[in-house]
């Protein structure tokens, strides 16, 4: 271990790591310049956007030391994430970001993607989407050249350290969308301080996965083994441990399980009794070992369950509001504050005592769940964190009252813009395309990235809300789980959703899957391009029929909203029409996944297959929302819509 510089472990040769020697971890700066993403030209738009981002970074709201900033428009858009160490204050955070920004500009000039690690903060930027994406590469392991001492009992030290880090990882991952950091210390048999942290845009599962990767033999095991202080750096998370106190505050003191007792003494004896004594001793020792292993296993499991239960209780307490508070926030649910009425109850605008504007959904009293089940479902919903999902702020459970408190989204829903002849002019093609991409990302998160797979089943324009920057957020993605329903995973005997958006296999057979949501997304995308509802379109012709007819005749531009036809990006609009028709194909297997849709929208050069004829639901099937799937009416036009209630179906990953 006689290194004169810090050893740096590089997991991927595609990345260049800039290494600077230092005698103290407090002065360390490391950077990684992504060589696979190319360089930008010195006087390019990307460079201007990057400079603007760097200059404005310190002006952003502190937000517990987490920053998510984007500047410019694709393909020159720069996306950045910054994270300050969770135990530091705002002044140290901003100072670190300022210094890291300057250092990163020097070490990674002209790179379209780079990351810089300092002692108190991490800064990364890219021309691709990085928010909400767990990334463990590139990685680095760092320790001080003056702290290469070895513990007296390396194996015991590592067992204690492992127990501490796993405990803190569970705590950090259970944090909310603002803060995922935990600090702790063990006091026996070794005193070890540790800090683990994830960027709070990660889900609980992604945070756990990232930290587990950092603690793996591949990372920490190969670099930090037998050392009394080390750091593992990754883009989405990091950890550090030392025998000296380096954190300003400690969240928890962790006591690892006691070491196993020493083996019993060897038996002594003579003659024929010696063999018997040895056998008895051996069997007893093996039995003792098995009992000890079982005892340690049960103790660890109990400790883990205790930590998880404690974390659930902490999260529940932080989310739960009393009824009087919500009643005051909504002015006693005054009709003047009413935002709308959905299938599950009315929604009111409210303002909490801290000044935060919220939307309060007062659920109808038809739920058959008990209080515990309701609270568990709410906690599951709260763990779904994504910038394109409406965030759950809290809940209220008192008597017969069940209230869900969401972030308030000021521009209300997409349908109030896209179908309004005046307001639609506010949505130029650039904004509409971003809305399409936002919806795709949110839906892909529900399908593939969240801890449980969520099938929305009521994706429509009125369930897409727009924030102050006109960014789209999917709403009503979990409410129906709070209500009893007679269905199994993948099948339902009651059709709940909105006609015109529902896939044929769902209406006719009651079968639903992620591809059912893809169908709805395709209809919604065609509505956004055309500015028209999916019900009736031209001379009684439905939207899907009209789109297919013009596509096959080579006149797809006829589908484009007249307010957009002077825009130069007609080719991009045509790609969206093409992609929309792929989504609404009748054969489920032919529809793309949301992951591939996001990729196509990010890369317009992708070659798309030829779509097959879509399912013309508006001419073939109608089923009432209260009718079983065996009762079907055919060859009648569907009504445009009738059901504001969304439903989700969870599949554990």
Helical content stands at 25-40%
Write down the overall mean pLDDT.
77
Integer-rounded radius of gyration: 29 Å
Report the end-to-end length measured between terminal Cα atoms: 42 Å
Write structural notes for this entry.
There is one protein chain. The protein is of the alpha+beta class and 653 residues long. Among the domains are: 15-142, Gnk2 domain, C-X8-C-X2-C motif (Killer Toxin P4, Chain A); 323-407, 2-Layer Sandwich (Phosphorylase Kinase, domain 1); 415-652, Orthogonal Bundle (Transferase(Phosphotransferase), domain 1). The chain is 34% helix and 18% strand. The protein contains 16 helices and 25 strands. The strands form 7 sheets. The protein has a 6-stranded antiparallel beta sheet. The protein has a 6-stranded mixed beta sheet with strand order 7-10-11-9-8-12, covered by helices on one side. The protein has a 5-stranded antiparallel beta sheet with strand order 13-14-15-17-16, sandwiched between helices. The longest helix is centred in the middle third of the chain and has 47 residues, at 273-319. It starts with 14 loop residues before the first strand and ends with a strand.
